[in-house]
Design a protein that fits this description.
Layout lengths: L2 E4 L2 E4 L7 E2 L3 E3 L6 H14 L12 H49 L18 H9 L9 H10 L11 H21 L13 E2 L2 E3 L1
Parallel strand pairs: 3-5, 4-6
Antiparallel strand pairs: 1-2
Helix pairs in contact: 1-2, 2-4, 2-5, 4-5
């Protein structure tokens, strides 16, 4: 397969000069059931005993108020972290489905068909489509694309907040997702080549 080398990256060469239109990327929005999520996060705070009693006021009334304030602060923080997780997962799920549709488009076009290897889904080589999204500067509202796809590769469905530890939501979330994505992408057999962004066009539709 012919390819161009630009800087430190390799790009596949596509016959002709016409622009190829890919299926639209349909991004599902994250449902906002914030009150329910906060309640579940508050239960997580209590069950994990995350609130230390060190330094609380001596008065029982003030102690109770201080405990409740810190419980809700932690619950709101956990809920925010969880909603960020779900937003990333939704983007990842949308991207995986988009890649499936792009595969069909490539299979139907003679000049694109040789660019894809036949393999078992999810094809590690399809990380080139994620790179294409970055190269096209798709607006993601602070969604990290590799993290989003990594979470989708890790979780078939987004688990409820009760399934997560506070350590995962606060510290491990992005690390696990990036490791999953990098491991998946690194499974691509050489040569690993990017799709030239100037030869493809598609729409991003937020549903």
């Amino acid at each position: 397969m012919a390819m161009d080398i630009i800087g430190g990256r390799k790009f596949v060469e596509i016959a002709g000069s016409e622009m190829h239109e890919l299926p639209p990327l349909l991004v599902r929005s994250t449902p906002r059931r914030l009150e329910k999520i906060v309640d579940m996060a508050a239960d997580l705070v209590e069950s994990e005993e995350l609130i230390s009693e060190f330094g609380t006021p001596a008065s029982p009334e003030l102690q109770m108020l201080d405990h409740e304030r810190r419980r809700m602060d932690l619950a709101l923080n956990l809920a925010d972290q969880y909603m960020g997780f779900v937003s990333h997962w939704n983007w990842g799920d949308s991207i995986v489905e988009w890649i499936r549709q792009c595969e069909t488009t490539f299979e139907l076009r003679q000049e694109l068909r040789p660019l894809l290897r036949a393999d078992v889904w999810p094809h590690a080589g399809r990380s080139s489509f994620v790179t294409l999204l970055s190269d096209k500067r798709v607006r993601t509202d602070q969604i990290d694309l590799s993290q989003a796809v990594g979470l989708r590769l890790t979780f078939r469905q987004p688990p409820p907040i009760a399934c997560f530890s506070n350590q995962f939501l606060f510290y491990l979330n992005s690390t696990v997702a990036h490791t999953a994505y990098q491991t998946w992408a690194a499974m691509s057999p050489d040569p690993v080549s990017s799709l030239p962004p100037e030869r493809f066009t598609f729409q991003v539709v937020e549903m």
